[in-house]
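Exam prep: given the inputs below (a chain plus PTJ), describe the expected output before reading on.
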Amino acid sequence: MTEIPCTHPRFASLKIRTLIEEGVAQGITSTAGLIAHGRGEAFDYLLGEDTYDFALEAMYEAVKVLKTAKHPIISVNGNTAVLVPDSIVKLSKIIQAPLEVNIFHSSKEREVAIANHLQKHGAENVLLPSSDTELTGLESNRRFVNPEGIAKADVVFVPLEDGDRCEYLVKRGVRVITVDLNPLSRTARTSHITIVDNVVRAIPALINLLLNTPTNSSKSFSNREILIRAEKKLRAFSQCS
Ligand code: PTJ
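Solution:
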């Protein structure tokens, strides 16, 4: 891998990119994950690589939903596994939700590599999809789920989701929380709660809120309004530069 000098003005961003590259070399991230990451980087650049009030409000709502969930599941793909292994494991322990490996680009080897990677980072409860349990009506590889996990979840927390499964889960009455830097994506628009932020900042910030903030406010939440504010922020940046 390329050595990144710590004096480089884009050091932090390039280091994160390296994690994704290494993830591909380790058989954890898909090659399509590189493209997905590039798209995320572009949105993050326009957002000034910062976490805004619209993301924090969505996190606050997510904390409320996760705290009251009966059977929450964290769905993990190749990108999330390499970008935030420690914090996703920590989140799983705090909310007592299993980490379920669920990937779009089908590969049994990659599923196992993701599970092993999470376990190396301290995960105690990792579920793998079962070829016997399918979400009927969903066509992608994401239809294979674990019978003790997504199959019976009331809340699914899924960073970097694809629109199809998101729509499917929402139709089934499951509450879906996502992290997506693109407020225009189908996932962002279909989920109940969309945290428009980089997963590398969002998961630690969510943990911080979970541990340190009482969530007893009954302030109403509109995901549509959150997305409008995020889109405005993106457009404002491109107009003034
Ligand atoms: O491991 P797999 O096979 O499940 O691969 C999953 C990917 C991510 C390749 C797959 O789900 C995919 O193709 O994703 P998309 O449709 O490209 O969507 C990814 C979304 O996540 C885009 O809207 C990106 O802007 C966004 N995104 C990318 N990187 C980040 C991100 N959002 C938050 N944080 C990021 N670091």
